[in-house]
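To assess whether ligand presence alters the predicted conformation, the chain was also submitted together with magnesium ion. Input:
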Amino acid sequence: MQAHEGAHVSQAPRVLFDADTIAARVRELGARISEDYRERDPVLVVTLGGAFVFAADLARAIEQPLRIDFMGAQSYGDAMQSSGVVKITYELARPVEGQDVLLVEDIVETGRTAKTLVQLLKARGARSVDMVALLHKGTPDTLPLPIPYLGFRFEEGFVVGYGLDHAQRHRGLPHIAVLDEPG
Ligand code: IMP
Ligand code: MG
């Protein structure tokens, strides 16, 4: 390999979960959801933008007829985060009242964003709300809400790819990678 190519490769994000591993896990989650929801037709509420790739694969791994809707949420800055206040940046197209909702997140860290969205969907009259998250960063005992459908857990580091971004980059990677030096 030539020197300039080597330099380029060394800056590439390090693979944490490869595409085959993700695909197998998404199939497992889809099979479990299909089983658990065999009496219900859930609506997938997909959080934008990071969860769009995961949701596209998950939707095709679930046997039930699905409704799919989208919601954008942004956490406020640090001072506001402790109260779990999130700003809705993109609104659902249809009401969730009476619906069995699967809230699809790319990554849960403190769980504040997810918990706030679950509470919001319940306050709007959803019959049930279950979390589906591709990733959880941290340790299970720190989570303020259950994640019945979780892809992978890892301890630390900033991850990108398979929909996840850093400053809007890397979303198109087919795998999940760790950015050693985000910036
Ligand atoms: P939480 O409210 O602390 O659970 O934060 C979750 C949100 O932080 C996610 O929806 C992402 O937008 C963002 N986030 C946290 N860690 C990462 C990461 O490693 N890569 C990309 N986004 C992340
Ligand atoms: Mg997010």
